[in-house]
Amino acid sequence: GLTSSKCDMHMPAALLSFLFVSIRREAEGFKEQGNVYYVKKDYAEAFNFYTKAIDLCPKNASYYGNRAATLMMLSRYREALEDSQQAVRLDDTFMKGHMREGKCHLLLGNAMAASRCFQKVLELEPDNSQVQQELKNAESILEFERLAEISFEKRDFRMVVFCMDRALEPASACHRFKVLKAECLALLGRYPEAQSVASDILRMDSTNGDALYVRGLCLYYEDCIDKAVQFFIQALRMAPDHEKARLACRNAKALKAKKEEGNKAFKEGSFEEAYVLYSEALTIDPNNIKTNAKLYCNRATVGSKLNKLEQAIEDCTKAIKLDETYIKAYLRRAQCYMDTEQYEEAVRDYEKVYQTEKTKEHKNLLKNAQLELKKSKRKDYYKVLGVDKNATEDEIKKAYRKRALMHHPDRHSGASSEVQKEEEKKFKEVGEAFTVLSDPKKKSRYDSGHDLEDDDMNMDFDANNIFKAFFGGPGGFSFEGNSCKANLYLLLIHLLIPCSDCTVNH
Fold it and tell me: Where are the alpha helices (DSSP H) in 205-270?
């Protein structure tokens, strides 16, 4: 009820003062309530009350400092950084504000900025041991960043991952470090780990171009090229200047196109063209391990069609080196080993396949390779006679006649004792080969890989008796003595078999 003009003049100032005190008191009440919830670790409610206090008194540094502390507990470090910066703008002597700003910078991976904040704290409190430790953390982050950069240039991706793991211990919220780690995990072929890191980032920031790029990179390296391209395009929408995403997108499209051209040429039977196209595709991106493994295996398939078996084996080996789980490459290489009669190597590859995939087909392939290996370690009677494995009975007889005359000891009677022994050995082998291959039962057992000695089949023979029976008819024949018949056969040997000194066939 003041009525005097003097009182009327002072009413606005008094009212303003009253309102200010009232607002300040209410704001303090909100702050105290926020503190209670903060102690209870109900940070969401604490945040709400600190926000109410700030709304009432936006120039109070401590309110921003308290809300920054709450935001840090909620892992909302960028918002906490803004509140900390606002707090020290309002009060440059607010030590806790500088400390929280430095801590936020550190958690976000901004080590240089963090160091500046911690230095400010030391100016205010020179003996602060906590901030001294934080300064050391900042220095270690800078050192790990430096080492990671050098290692990335050297393509030592394992070292980069190691450095980023160490840096992320004090800088756990740094997306930049996480993305670099994820990229290197992808380059190391550790795709699930890389995908997990990138996905964690995208859950917090769906527009992060680097994380989108890494997701695409993982898909690209797992040969899911169409999906990879979609992620690269999305990354470029978020970050139009993302050079890595642009290059990866270009490589992915080029690789897919070249691989499809090669497949088309192969299906059309244009093997030479397919070989060239697969070779060109292999030059596009050496880092794409899985796709390149498939390209090497495809080229090996073409190589086997072109009878480039050793090259095909080499390509399969390259494919396996890139992807040790690539069963198709093992199977292709094993078949090439079989075709080149490298049976031990074929058995080794088929064993690897069967250990991985115990199918009936793989078991049969392994058994066949083992059988061929066993057969290869016996005398090859077909080679001894110089005939094909599908030789007819007449071809076997003709081959025996020629080889027996060629290696008969009497033809080499004038040679050195070493030559005589060698020729006698070959003569016996020819007789042994003829004994087996001229007998249908023995030949069948031999062709199936059985050891004739283990089958109670009579393998005792006399090479001279076979020769006599073959050349001498029912009465037999002997080279012994100087009979006219013997001389005639020696002449026959000379006429049928060119002597080593002649350049003209007799």
Answer: 209-221, 225-238, 243-267
In the chain, what is the greatest distance between 2 CA atoms, to the nearest angstrom?
Answer: 170
Report the C-alpha gap between 335 and 337 in whole angstroms: 5
Question: For residues 196 and 131, is the Cβ–Cβ distance under 8 A?
Answer: no
Among 251, 274, 289, which residue terminates a domain?
251
Residue 231 and residue 302 share a domain: no
Q: Say yes or no: 203 and 306 in one domain.
A: no
CB-facing half-sphere around the CA of 321: CA atoms within 13 A? 7
Residue count of the chain, please give it: 506
As a whole number of angstroms, the distance between CA 120 and CA 95 comes to 8
Please identify which residue in the block is written with the tokens 């934080």: 134
Report the number of distinct structural domains present in the chain.
4
Range scoring the smallest mean pLDDT among 33-37, 145-149, 189-193, 490-494? 490-494
Residue 252 near residue 213 (C-beta atoms within 8 A) = no
CA distances (Å), origin 43, targets 36, 66, 84, 204, 427: 10, 11, 17, 19, 99
- Per-residue confidence (pLDDT) for residue 452, from 0 to 100: 59
| 190: DSSP letter | -
In a domain, 38, yes or no: yes
Any residues with CB less than 8 A from the CB of 56 and at least 6 apart, and which?
23, 24, 26, 27, 30
Structure tokens at 228: 């990879």
CA 363 – CA 343 distance, rounded (Å)? 16
pLDDT tens for 193-241 read 999 999 999 998 999 999 999 999 999 999 999 999 999 999 999 999 9
Query: What is the gyration radius of the CA atoms in the chain, in angstroms?
Result: 44
User: What does the alpha-carbon distance between residue 20 and residue 376 come to, in Å, rounded to a whole number?
Assistant: 104
Give yes or no: residues 290 and 270 share one domain: yes
State the residue for tokens 């470029």. 236
Enclosing domain of residue 397: 384-448+459-496
**Residue 351 pLDDT level (bands cut at 50, 70, 90):** very high
CA 389 to chain centre: 42
pLDDT of residue 474: 43
Q: Work out the average pLDDT over 356-379.
A: 91
Same domain, 480 and 402: yes
Among 138, 156, 183, which residue terminates a domain? Answer: 138
Task: Please tell me whether residues 160 and 241 are part of one structural domain.
Answer: yes
Shared domain check, 425 and 392? yes
Whether residue 12 is contained in a domain is answered as no
Task: Give 380-436 pLDDT, tens digit per residue.
Answer: 888 888 888 888 988 888 888 888 888 888 888 888 888 888 888 888 888 888 888
DSSP-derived secondary structure letter, 504? S
Contact 128, 122 (CB under 8 A): yes
DSSP 183: H
